[in-house]
Design goal:
Largest sheet: 5 strands, antiparallel
Strand content: 15-25%
Number of helices: 3
Number of domains: 2
CATH topology of the largest domain: Structural Genomics Hypothetical 15.5 Kd Protein In mrcA-pckA Intergenic Region, Chain A
Structural class: alpha+beta
Distance between the termini: 50 Å
Number of strands: 5
CATH architecture of the largest domain: Roll
Radius of gyration: 22 Å
Strand order of the largest sheet: 2-1-3-4-5
Order of helices and strands: HEEEEEHH
Shape: elongated
């Protein structure tokens, strides 16, 4: 999955596009997009051997701004507000309500 992201130029190291074989060093900043958030990770140290997932946080620092996570929460809430997950496609009445709401916005802008 990470290799694919690198091949698609979605991962940068210190502002430069990274290839899958790119070596990273302490103080390097890795930027990538995950869950609609551009995340920034700073490499603190390189382990001598492979480590478990629980120990990875010892070697990295998450510098992603808190506002990005707040924005993600707002996106989740806005998606759940109109329609709950798993309720299917909008009904004919829902579609009419959406169209009517859009028309109200357009006519309000024309009045100004």
């Amino acid at each position: 999955m990470v290799t694919e992201a690198c091949k698609k130029n979605h991962v940068t190291v210190n502002g430069l596009v990274a290839k899958p074989s790119k070596e990273v060093f302490p103080t390097d900043k890795i930027t990538f997009r995950k869950d609609q958030i551009t995340q920034i990770i700073t490499v603190l140290d390189i382990p001598e051997n492979r480590v478990g997932a629980k120990l990875v946080d010892i070697y990295r620092r998450n510098d992603t701004p808190a506002e990005a996570y707040q924005h993600l929460e707002l996106l989740k809430l806005s998606k759940e507000h109109y329609r709950k997950n798993g309720t299917g496609r909008p009904t004919k009445k829902d579609r009419r309500d959406i169209d009517e709401f859009g028309n109200e916005i357009i006519t309000d802008e024309d009045d100004e």
